[in-house]
Amino acid sequence: MSSREDIARAAELNPQDPTPLIAEIGTALGLGYPNREMRALWEEIITVRAPHHYEAHYVALQYWCAKWHGSKKLAREFAETAASQAPRGSLMAALPLVAWYENNDEEMPPGAYRSPKVRALVDAALADAAAAGEHARLPEVRHLLAHFLVKQGRYRAAVEQFRSVDGHLDALPWHYWPWKGLCYRATRTKAARGALMETLRR
């Protein structure tokens, strides 16, 4: 039996559980589902099973990225739509930030992180994270926020994120870097030093 057949059988056994269909998004990535087939899968996830499921949206966003089966435009639009339709505390406001990172990080000069647009994305994600309570994916979002805040020179805010979720190195952006432990610690140290300097200047 193929993985698609296994997933279909699991989905039939519990029509309300989004887990099998979220797993199928991984299959869509690997097998290269056509866009129309991915859209049909996605419609079932968000309309029937899990309209604001963070992990489902995160994995689906990967599909729509240019590195997989989409484009920069499709990834950005997918993330913006998800964020605009979700309640605060769902962490959907972090998706445009994820899309920006996936689309731009390797191409943008450091100053691009400090643009008004990117700062607004960070602020929206910060507000969403503050309302997320014990959301299981909150640590991952906090790590991405810490990365952006350091890039923006907002060191005290970055330290607050690091204090909340120290460790958890398999999060974006660290898991993309070959020496993720070193990169994580270097960024955390930069945040701590920058925060100290900000305090001394006050």
Write the layout of secondary structure elements.
Elements: H1 3-13, H2 19-31, H3 35-49, H4 54-64, H5 72-84, H6 95-104, H7 116-130, H8 138-151, H9 155-164, H10 180-201
Helix pairs in contact: 1-2, 2-3, 2-4, 4-5, 4-6, 5-6, 6-7, 7-8, 8-9, 9-10
Describe the structure in brief.
This protein is mainly alpha-helical and 202 residues long. Helices cover 66% and strands 0% of the residues.
* Shape designation: elongated
Write down the secondary-structure element order: HHHHHHHHHH
* SSE class: mainly alpha
What fraction, in percent, of the residue positions are helical?
A: 55-70%
Low-confidence stretches: none
Rg from C-alpha positions?
18 Å
Write down how many β-strands occur, each being a DSSP E stretch of 2 or more residues.
Answer: 0
Mean pLDDT: 90
Biggest sheet features: none
Cα(first) to Cα(last) distance is 65 Å
Q: Work out the helix count.
A: 10
Beta strand %:
under 5%
